[in-house]
């Protein structure tokens, strides 16, 4: 039986990935900070243990017996000078403990932008990469086998764009995006477990359909709820969204400005050869969302 330990198992992407791996017969251990919450939303067959990436001692207990670790963490700021980031100091803590415990393989989800800067048509850099790159380099130099999944935009995020029968798109998004989904990534992770061909490599995770954000939204709502209207708004609407802080506004503007000028190309052939091809179209995946 395949085994994996997941850090970030209860997040927006981590939860469906954990559930899918569990359904595929993988023995999953979830390292979480809130045991009660995790047990309420994860399948009973998933082992839930306490661990905090900010606390090495908790990780030493949580990771005992683990062979393969999957990191599904996220950075939502570009404050490089902050003393702690889960995708920097947190991951470095995981790596240090993993070396001590003899863990053999660490996998991590990151953005497609960090592996293909040439997709940025204006030469713009996504600033959160300045935070996550040091830990990625630390993992590469650790001696532990690593696998990076450089992912395109997840269709799983689409329901979060819907408010009051409206799918709101902010910015001018005309370039093609090869949208992926958590079902696809879970299958890639499954095929990477105990697979030496996946060791010390970076894989691009994309779907097969290259469509613009508005086109994808229309395809999605056509299955999800045909009463929903897709609406497009300029970036200058951001200050009027009522976000909690000015920093949140600045981060959203930076992220959407970056996405506006990002022009993907299909570069996932190696991934498909080693870890399997995507099986779900945008329409197919929308049907799975409806059924959740």
UniProtKB/TrEMBL annotation:
Residues crossing the lipid bilayer are none
Per its UniProt record, what InterPro entries does this chain match? HCF244-like, NAD(P)-bd_dom, NAD(P)-bd_dom_sf
NAD(P)-binding domain span: 8-156
Asked whether the UniProt record includes Disulfide bond among its keywords, one would answer: no
UniProt keywords (A-Z) are: Photosynthesis, Photosystem II
Any one GO BP annotation for this protein: photosynthesis
- What is the organism field in this record? Flammeovirga yaeyamensis
UniProt protein name: NAD(P)H-binding protein
Q: Which GO terms describe its cellular component?
A: photosystem II
Record-linked Gene3D superfamilies: NAD(P)-binding Rossmann-like Domain
């Amino acid at each position: 039986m395949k085994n994996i330990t997941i850090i970030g198992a209860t997040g927006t992407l981590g939860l469906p990935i954990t559930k899918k791996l569990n359904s595929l017969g993988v023995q999953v251990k979830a390292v979480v900070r809130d045991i009660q919450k995790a047990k309420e939303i994860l399948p009973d067959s998933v082992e839930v243990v306490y661990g905090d990436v900010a606390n090495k001692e908790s990780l030493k207990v949580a990771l005992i017996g683990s062979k393969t670790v999957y990191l599904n963490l996220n950075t939502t700021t570009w404050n490089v000078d902050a003393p702690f980031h889960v995708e920097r100091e947190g991951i470095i803590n995981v790596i240090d403990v993993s070396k001590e415990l003899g863990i053999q393989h660490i996998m991590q989800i990151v953005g497609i932008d960090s592996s293909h800067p040439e997709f940025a048509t204006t030469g713009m850099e996504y600033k959160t990469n300045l935070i996550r790159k040091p830990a990625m380099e630390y993992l590469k130099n650790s001696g532990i086998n690593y696998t990076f999944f450089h992912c395109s935009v997840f269709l799983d995020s689409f329901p979060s764009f819907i408010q009051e029968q409206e799918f709101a798109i902010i910015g001018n998004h005309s370039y093609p995006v090869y949208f992926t989904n958590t079902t696809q990534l879970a299958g890639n992770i499954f095929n990477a477990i105990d697979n030496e061909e996946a060791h010390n490599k970076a894989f691009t995770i994309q779907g097969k359909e290259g469509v613009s954000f508005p086109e994808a939204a229309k395809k999605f709502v056509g299955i999800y709820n045909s009463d929903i209207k897709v609406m497009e708004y300029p970036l200058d609407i951001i200050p009027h969204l009522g976000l909690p802080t000015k920093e949140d506004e600045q981060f959203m503007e930076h992220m959407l400005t970056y996405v506006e000028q990002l022009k993907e190309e299909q570069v996932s052939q190696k991934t498909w050869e080693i870890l399997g091809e995507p099986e779900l179209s945008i329409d197919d995946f929308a049907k799975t969302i409806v059924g959740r």
